[in-house]
Amino acid sequence: xxxxxxxxxxxxxxxxxxxxxxxxxxxxxxxxxxxxxxxxxxxxxxxxxxxxxxxxxxxxxxxxxxxxxxxxxxxxxxxxxxxxxxxxxxxxxxxxxxxxxxxxxxxxxxxxxxxxxxxxxxxxxxxxxxxxxxxxxxxxxxxx
Length: 144
Hints:
The structure is a single chain. The chain is an alpha/beta fold. The protein is 42% helix and 15% strand. It has a domain at 39-137: Rhodanese-like domain (Oxidized Rhodanese, domain 1, 3-Layer(aba) Sandwich), CATH 3.40.250.10.
């Protein structure tokens, strides 16, 4: 008995149905808005410095604790505490159309935070993947 035809039919059915998005009745009745996607680009300290020198519209977002921030930070940086209970709410208040250079101390917290930036539909994020430690190791300036 040849089961290959049946098997192919089942595979085709599973493939077709597993990739179809679930729709609610409301979604089926109204046209779907295109999903916004966040562009995240990892940058090294040299790339981040070039970005800051060549662009006047980049917002430096330091997501370390206020204590870490006060010990030294990039010029013009805004501090939003990753560990703060209001982290997501504070991000949500920011202009999502602006370009952000996001960093923490070493890149670990800021890497974890990228999911929140995507969820909140920020448009463009440059992630300083070595954090402030990499910035300082590269001899870049810090404000104290």
